[in-house]
Write a structure and sequence with these properties.
The structure is a single chain. By secondary structure, the chain is an alpha+beta fold. The protein has a two-stranded parallel ribbon. Strands 3-4 form a two-stranded antiparallel sheet. The chain contains 4 helices and 4 strands. It has 2 domains: 57 residues, no CATH class; 62 residues, no CATH class. Helix content is 37%, strand content 16%.
């Protein structure tokens, strides 16, 4: 039901023939299949209509191949704005998820000074760095 509502909302937006659509966490509460279906639908519609989508999300899974550009906001500044193919870390093999997680960890002490920047989750056996801790979902 949520997927159908979001599709209708997006279709209504697209019918107004905008040149830019701003989406903020539009897929955050969707399951994996609904999210993939909505992203495919959105990509097809925007390519067909020539619409630019600015998609803000903390859920990064599957977006590396979906987007064309990356804009990463750090506290008080735009840390990166470039075509995905021009981001050196991505060209070197780091995934979008890994890169954004690393940047967020670097920024965390600036946001909350009580957090120890020396804590490395890759050393702590209780923390699996492959788990998407940025999503609102849960893994079992």
């Amino acid at each position: 039901m949520a997927l159908q509502r979001r599709r209708v909302q997006l279709l209504l937006d697209l019918e107004r023939a905008p040149s830019v659509i701003l989406l903020d966490e539009v897929t955050a509460e969707l399951d994996v299949l609904a999210r993939a279906d909505l992203l495919r639908y959105l990509r097809a519609e925007t390519e067909q209509r020539g619409v630019t989508v600015v998609y803000a999300s903390h859920v990064l899974e599957g977006l590396g191949a979906w987007g064309t550009h990356l804009a990463f906001l750090s506290p008080g500044r735009l840390r990166c704005f470039a075509a995905l193919g021009q981001v050196p870390e991505l060209a070197a093999g780091e995934t979008l998820h890994e890169l954004c997680e690393r940047w967020m960890r670097e920024d965390r002490p600036k946001i909350d000074p009580k957090i120890d920047p020396k804590i490395d989750p890759k050393i702590d056996p209780k923390i699996d760095p492959k788990i998407d801790r940025g999503s609102t979902g849960s893994a079992m």
